[in-house]
Amino acid sequence: MIGLWSVPLLFALPLALGILTLLATPAWRPRLSLAGLPLLLAASAAAFLDLALSGPGIYRLGDWPAPLGINLNVDGLSAGMVVMTAVVAALCAAYARSYLRDYPASASFFWPLFWFLWAGMNGIWLAEDIFNLYVGLEVMGLAAVGMVALRATPQALAAAMRYLLAALLGSLAYLLGVALLYGAYGTLSMAGLQHVAADNPTTQVALALIILGLLLKTALFPLHAWLPPAHGGALTPVSALLSALVVKGSFYILLRLWLVLGPEVTPAFTAQLLGVLGAGAVFYGGWMAWRQHLLKQLVAYSTVAQIGYLFLFFPLVTGTGAEAARLAWDGTMMMLVAHALAKAALFLSAGNLILAVGSSQIGHLVGISRFRPLSLFSFGLAGVSLMGLPPSGGFTGKWLLLHSAILSGQWWWLIVLFLGGLLSAAYIFKVFRMSFREGPQIDRSVPPPLTMDVAAMILAASAIVIGLTAHLPLHWLRAGALLGGG
Amino acid sequence: MSGALAFAWSGVLLFGLGLFGFIMHRHLLRRLLAFNIMGSGSFLVLVGLAQDGRGVDPVPHAMVITGIVVAVASTALALVVFRRWYRASGRTDLPEDT
C-alpha cells in the first residue's frame, strides 16, 4: 500500500509548508513553496496510484477507530479531486511566482495562505464524516477570504468582507444541520448516516439547512452576488484558484451528501428545483458575463454560469434509471474537471492579456492578437472547453449530460445545455472580436514572463486533452462511488 | 420536555435571533456579533440535542471545542478585514450592491 504514507501527507505537507512559509522571511517564502510543490505532487500521485492498485478504502488517521479518530475516505472521486487540485494548484503556483514580483506587499502572505487553502481542500476531498467536512470547509474558506483581501485596495477589502459574511452564514447553516443530524442519529460518518437516516422532519430540516448553506458557498444563482467581485477583483493567480477549485469544495460536499441522503429524504421536487436554479445560473451568468466591460469580471461571471451546469446533476441522477444516473454522474465529473482546468487557464491567460495591454478593460484589447498570440491562443482553447465545442472536456461533459437528459426523458435540460453553450460563445467571442480588431489604441505590448504563458497554455491544453481521453479519468472517478442509480 | 431538549430549543432560538441580527444590521461589528450568537446557538443544539436520551456523550463536546476554535479564527479574520476596510474607506458598513 503506497497510500499508507501518502494519504496523511496530503494534509501534513501543506499544513507544514503553510506554517514554514509563515515563519520564513518573505524572500524565502516562494523558494520554500516551490521546493514543496514536487513533494505534494508526488504524494497526490501516490494516493492515486494506491487507489488504482488496491482499490478504494478507508484510511484511519493515527490508526484510531472512528468516533475518536478521523477516517479518510479514498475512492475514485476523492483521489480524482486530489489530483485535479494538485495539477491546477501547482500551475497556479508557478504562475504566481512570476506574477507576484510586481506585488511585493501581497506576495509575502500569498504563500502561507496558498498552502492552508490546499490543506483545506484536501481535507474536504478526503473527509469521511460530516464534521470534518465542516472543518475542511472553514480552513479552505478562511484562507480564500484572506487571499481575496491580499490586494488591500478598498474594492478588494469590500469584496473580501462580503465573501467572508456569505461564507460564515453558509457554514453556520451547515453546522446547524450537522448538529441536528448528530442529535438525531448519533453518527457523523457518511456511510453510517446512509444506513440509519430515515425520512422524518428532523432529517429534512437538517438537510435543507445543509443544502442552503452549501448553495450559498457554491454561489449558485440567486445566491451568487458575492462571487464576481471576489473572484474578479482578486490577484490573477488567486482568481484562478478560487474559481477553478474553491467553489468545487462546497459543491463536492453537496454531491456526496446528496448521494447519501438526498433522494430518500427530500421531497421529489427538490432535485428539479436545484436543476432549475442551475439553469437560472447558466442563463443569468452567461448574460451578465456578456455585458461586462472588465475582462476578469467577464471570466468571473462565466464561473457563475458554469456552476449552473454542475447542478443539472441533481434532477438527472434522482429518480431516473441506472443508466441515466451513470451518464449524469460521468457528465458532471467531466464538467467539474474540465471547468477547473479551463477556468484556471482562462483566468491566467486573461491575466497575461491584462499585463500585456496594461488595462483590464476589454475595449483596450484592440489589436492585441498581433502581439500576444500565445496568450490569446490559450484563452481561446480554454474558451472552446467552456463553450462545449468538440473535442474538449467541456464538450464530452455536455454530451454525457445530454444523453442522460434524453434517456431520462427530461428534454427541457437540453435547452439549457444548448442555449448555455451559445451564451458562452457570445462572451468568449466578444473578447476575440476586440483582440482581432485593428485600431490606433496600442502599438506595443508588455510581454509577460514565459512561465506565465506556459502555465496558462498547459492548463488550456489539458482541458482539451481530457476530452480526447475521457474514458480514462471517468473510469477512475467512478471507482467506489456511492451510486445507487437513483 | 427534558433539560437537554430545553438546551437544544434555546440553541435554535439563539440561532434564529442571530440570523435576524445578521440580516437586519448593516454595521459590520454588529453583524459579526450576530454571527457569534448564531455560532453559540448551533453549539448549544449540538451538545443539548445529542445528550437527550443518550446520557453524556463526549463527541459533541469535542466538536464544539473545534467549532469554537473555528469561530475564534473567523472572528479574528473578520476583525482584521473590517479594520482595514474601515481605514481604507471610513465606512462601518458595506457599499450596497453595485
TrEMBL record, chain A:
Bilayer disposition of the protein: Multi-pass membrane protein
UniProt GO BP: ATP synthesis coupled electron transport
Cellular component annotations (GO), alphabetically ordered: plasma membrane
EC numbers: 1.6.5.11
Domain NADH:quinone oxidoreductase/Mrp antiporter transmembrane: 127-421
EC top class, as a word: oxidoreductase
Residue ranges of domain NADH-Ubiquinone oxidoreductase (complex I) chain 5 N-terminal in the record: 69-110
GO molecular function: NADH dehydrogenase (ubiquinone) activity; oxidoreductase activity
Pfam family membership, one: Proton_antipo_M
UniProt keyword annotations, A-Z: Cell membrane, Membrane, Oxidoreductase, Transmembrane, Transmembrane helix
Family recorded in the similarity comment: Belongs to the CPA3 antiporters (TC 2.A.63) subunit D family.
Protein name: NADH dehydrogenase (Quinone)
The organism of origin for this protein: Thioalkalivibrio nitratireducens (strain DSM 14787 / UNIQEM 213 / ALEN2)
Lineage: Bacteria, Pseudomonadati, Pseudomonadota, Gammaproteobacteria, Chromatiales
From TrEMBL, chain B:
UniProt keyword annotations, A-Z: Cell membrane, Membrane, Transmembrane, Transmembrane helix, Ubiquinone
Keyword Manganese attributed: no
InterPro entries: CPA3_antiporter_subunitC, NUOK/Mnh_C1-like
Entry membrane topology: Multi-pass membrane protein
Gene Ontology CC terms, in alphabetical order: plasma membrane
Listed Pfam families: Oxidored_q2
Compartments it resides in: Cell membrane
Transmembrane segments: 6-25, 32-50, 62-82
Coiled-coil region: none
Superkingdom of the organism of origin: Bacteria
PANTHER family: ANTIPORTER SUBUNIT MNHC2-RELATED
Family, as annotated: Belongs to the CPA3 antiporters (TC 2.A.63) subunit C family.
Descriptive protein name: NADH-ubiquinone oxidoreductase
Gene source species: Thioalkalivibrio paradoxus ARh 1
Phylogenetic lineage: Bacteria, Pseudomonadati, Pseudomonadota, Gammaproteobacteria, Chromatiales
